[in-house]
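Hello, quick one for you while I still have it in my head. No rush at all, and the record is pasted right below.
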Amino acid sequence: MSDAVIVALITGICAVAGQWLISRKQAQDRETAEAVRDQRIEDRLSAVERKLDVHNGYAEKFAEIGADIAVIKNDIKTLYRQKGE
C-alpha cells in the first residue's frame, strides 16, 4: 500500500472516531439536561402539592367555621326569643 492510502485510512478512522466521541458527548449532555429538567418539574410539582395540602387544610377549617357560625346563629336566635318572652 502506498503512503497516501495509509494516511487516508488513518485520517478516516480518526474522523469517524472523533465524530463518534462528539455524538456520545452530545447524547450525555442531552441526558443530563433532561434529568435536570425532570428534577425541576418534580420540585415544582412537589411545591404545588404542598400548597394544595395547605389549601385543603384551610378549606376543611372554613367548613368547620361555617358549621360553628350556624350554631352561633341558632344560639343568638334562641337568646332573642328568650329575651322577647
About this structure: The chain has a mean pLDDT of 91. Residues 3-84 form the longest helix (82 residues). Helices lie at 3-84. The CA atoms of residues 36 and 76 lie 59 Å apart.
